[in-house]
Amino acid sequence: MRLLDRSIGIQYFLNVVLLLLILASFIVVVDASLNMHRYLRYAGEHDEFLPKAMSTISIIWSLWWPRLVQLFNYTLGFVLVSALGFTMAQLVARRELVAILASGISLWRAIAPVFVVAFGFLLIGVANQELVIPRIVGILLADDPRVSNQDGRIGVTNLPTTADASGRLFFATTFDPGEGVMEGVKVWERNQVGVPTRLISADAARWDGSAWVLEGGRASLVGQAGEITAIDRIETEMDPNAFAVRRFAGLGQHLSFATLGDLLGQDESLTPELRRRLQRDRWGRVGSWLAMSLSIVIAVPFFVTREPRNMALQAAKCAPIVLAALVLSALGVSAPIAGMPGWLSVFLPAMLLAPAAAAAATSVQT
Prior knowledge:
- By secondary structure, the protein is an alpha+beta fold.
- The chain has 2 domains: about 1-145 and about 280-365, no CATH class; about 160-245, no CATH class.
- The protein has 12 helices and 8 strands.
- The chain is elongated, with a radius of gyration of 27 Å.
- The model has no long low-confidence stretch (mean pLDDT about 85).
């Protein structure tokens, strides 16, 4: 039985890897063919063909490797189901399923290695989402191919007026979340009705773990000709990550589960809309992984059959159902549902797919 498990598991693993490589290559080739003039311009001036070609390939790689890392999670569910179809088609073509049944082995037991390998890829997706993607956020947000020298941190940008839990408004002409540094800083302190009462200005500010340490900090009363006083730090719950989430609308999906939990812990500083979005970003990945797992179970009856069938026809029957399940999962993560908390709405697709998966599991004639 170990030999059979190893044979089916390796076959399914190779199909998954092959489909991932084909999909990634197709996407990169299409993009390169449409934007080659742009990449050639970034490659610089080279008289010889080989140096220019190598420079162009390097730029395309520096732009696309982080995107492919992110694309892995987006396409994993589709690839796992497709690889199941290819693996079963190969087994049916060689009449191996018939031999397995004739030996007295259940079909569910025969395809157990498929679920083990699929679970392994899901764990890789979890590690990719939690450990890798948060480290390359800066490259993912950049649209310039010349980012190969970046270390993955979010790049320098400006900070529009942003409020903290105390009602203070922060503004900076330049903001580097990776370094935790702001320049051209202005902070308005406001009263209970929102009227500015004091203006704090600084040449720069650096986050020290609990407060923003000001360089050249000075404070003055708004609308009054009073004495300018020196100030060296501002204590606030708004760390670089909190400012970055507000600066970049879709940044939440690139942060780790723990980081999103820390941001959600800032009760008073989050608007209800931002809180719901962060909740969807945090728990949506769990809902997506559940939906992907259920989609694989739903696809099993189409390909795992006692008698040989036309696998192309079975794939045509399976494709719209599984695609609908995966699209439903994606919509559940990205689209809010009125009247439901953000953390609960992302599990609605999995709740809807669970009965279908149970019916599919019991319909396999083993």
